[in-house]
Amino acid sequence: MAMDANSINCGEALSLGYLLKMNTSLLSTYLHVPYPETGRWYLSLQILCPNDKGSDDCGKETARVGVSTELSPCIGDCGVYGECRLLRAHGYLYAACVCKAGWSGWSCTDDTHALSYQKQLLATLLLTLSNLVFIPAIVVAVHRYYFVEAAVYLFTMVFSTFYHACDQPGVAVMCIMEYDTLQYCDFLGSVLSVWVTVLCMARLKSQLKYVLFILGSLLIAMSMQLDRRGLWNLLGPCLFAIIVMLAAWVSQCVKRHHCYPPTWKRWVFFLLPGIGSAVIAIAVYAFLETKENYYYTHSIWHILVAGSVVFLLPPGKQHLRLWFWPRKFTCGYQICSNIKEDLYVVC
């Protein structure tokens, strides 16, 4: 224990310090001191004779004691249900065990509130299988010739699935690569999915859209490397993409002299459900998600975000022309593109 040697006597030091006992049946012992204070530390040794020995025999007793000290960032490497991390709080940089699945303690060995294996397995299945909701979004993107967007959704689905499979504690865990790599790819894919979806909704010219895709991807990758948990890493690209989309829509409104997108069906059956799903997902993520209900609320976040993409992706021109129906009917009518209304009509 750190103290001033001139301000305290030996008896007080023994009462205030850490007591360790050894005997013939216990030849070694150890003591963990979490976050030891800076200063001088003192070791006091005292030999106690058994009651069945006289004072003459006790005076002849000797003991050889070996002392060793070592520093470690975490006790026992935090065990199976914890992870040793470097944390920062109130200007202090320190290492500590971050426990999972309800385990607690300095080394994550206290199972008072630990989750059972069945609950751990259920949590893993919820967090991984909920990413499969991205499959409809990928199918819709491919069907509408949005191949770049579909590739981003596929990347997000794969790495989010394996990241959450690796992020689980205990035996219900599977890591195909390093945890840090999976986490980085998961965060990167999530932000990129929002980025490409909103820019796709803007209906920009292909050259400008793909330039923004690449430039935004590079900047997002850089910011994720600097601080992947930073709030502005998600809000920044989202706000910028929304501003670009609104500017493009206003420009279309001015050119067409009416609201864009032009049809009420597009708003009622696609845009409003998609926006509503995205808003609910943000509300769940920001206000309802806690450490205790993370397995359920984050799975709902996966489902709502992936579902919103299905509604928000605009119809593709190549898709409508090539895959919906042939351009000519047997009765002599023909499908014509109405650029002003963003529709295809019979002419």
What distance lies between the first and last C-alpha atoms, to the nearest angstrom?
91 Å
Low-confidence stretches: 319-329, 337-346
Rg of Cα set: 32 Å
| Basic shape | elongated
Q: What is the total tally of β strands? A: 4
Main sheet record: 2 strands, antiparallel
Number of helices: 11
* Strands in their spatial order, largest beta sheet: 1-2
Helix content: 40-55%
Beta-strand content: 5-15%
Mean pLDDT over all positions:
82
What is the element string, with H for helices and E for strands? HHEEHHHHHHHHHEE
Structural class estimated from helices and strands: mainly alpha
Name a few traits of the molecule.
single chain; 347 residues; mainly alpha; two-stranded antiparallel sheet; 51% helix; elongated; disordered C terminus
SSE blueprint and pairings:
Blueprint: H1 10-16, H2 55-59, E1 82-89, E2 92-99, H3 117-129, H4 134-143, H5 147-166, H6 179-201, H7 206-226, H8 232-256, H9 264-288, H10 294-312, H11 317-324, E3 335-338, E4 343-346
Antiparallel strand pairs: 1-2, 3-4
Helix pairs in contact: 3-5, 3-10, 4-5, 4-10, 5-6, 6-7, 6-8, 9-10
Describe the protein in words.
Strand 3 (335-338) and strand 4 (343-346) form a beta hairpin. The protein has a two-stranded antiparallel ribbon with strand order 1-2. Mean pLDDT is 82; it is low at 319-329 and 337-346. The protein has 347 residues and is mainly alpha-helical. The chain has helices at residues 10-16, 55-59, 117-129, 134-143, 147-166, 179-201, 206-226, 232-256, 264-288, 294-312, 317-324, and strands at residues 82-89, 92-99, 335-338, 343-346.
